[in-house]
Amino acid sequence: MRIGVLLLQRRRAFYTALSEALRDAAAAVRDHEVMIQIEHVDELTPQNASEGLLRLAQSSDVLGVTAPEHPLVASAIEQLAARNIKTFALISQLTARCNVGYVGLDNWKVGRTSGWAFGNLCKAPGKIGVLVGNHRFRCQETNESGFRSYFREHPQGFDLLEARATFETASIAREVTERLLEEHPDLVGLYVSGGGISGAVAALRDSGRAREIAAVGYEYLDITRSALLDGTLNFVIAHPQRALASEAIAAMIRAHEGGPDFPPQSVSLPFEIYTPENL
């Protein structure tokens, strides 16, 4: 069985680790011979994602992809479905005029859990800055929606600022965070729900205000671990990468074996939570 996977930038530690986890999960399958081919999209455009999917499909029986929500991506998935090649969205949900599987987190719960964290971490209500990587990633849109939903249900006097995009880039995340800190000297919290966490962490550290501002980040990486240890970050939500990889490979095998009438399924995984006290 041939599995093709299209992930985001290879230079990002999260996707490097996920790629390794997927290869290990494929190698661990005992009742099938699984061949896995993994490619990365370094320029985050819908056209690159759709072209990458169609290219991988030439040598794959079933596909997994992390991509932005866009008509070009949906069109590629629909073309593949017409050829009985099923697609699974990994990390961020996708829609099309056919069934699309999903393996990832319940991002509504991620956002609401982040809201709960600020409600308990902040010494007093105030302004909270929100960073997203790219509004076309449904996982991040849903994170933000869940986050704002929590505070609508539990109003505590917090002022949630308009989300600012980092375009999944550390340098932009740093600039955006520096601007937030400059424009809002009374900022009490920073929620980094998308890419560019290293840039946001660097800006907080350099500002000298890191211990004054409650900060919640995303994914357990070397940079987030060190930021938890020195107090720059207070709370981190992460994908369980090994479990995600195993579930993704298993779901793709089930979908392929089920034949044309077996729809790709959705698998929602429990997320991991890290604080300075449980490292």
What would you note in describing this structure?
With 279 residues, the chain is of the alpha/beta class. It folds into two domains: 131 residues, 3-Layer(aba) Sandwich (Rossmann fold); 132 residues, Rossmann fold (3-Layer(aba) Sandwich). It contains nine helices and 13 strands. The strands form two sheets. Strands 6, 7, 8, 9, 10, 11 and 13 form a seven-stranded mixed sheet that branches. A six-stranded parallel sheet has the order 2-1-3-4-5-12, with helices on both faces. Helix 2 runs parallel beside helix 3 and helix 6 packs parallel to helix 7. The longest helix has 17 residues.
Task: Please describe the structure with a list of short key phrases separated by commas or semicolons.
279 residues; alpha/beta; Rossmann fold; seven-stranded mixed sheet; six-stranded parallel sheet; 9 helices
What form results from the Cα inertia axes? Answer: elongated
Task: Report the strand count.
Answer: 13
Q: How much of the sequence is in beta strands?
A: 15-25%
Superfamily (CATH H level) name of the largest domain:
Response regulator
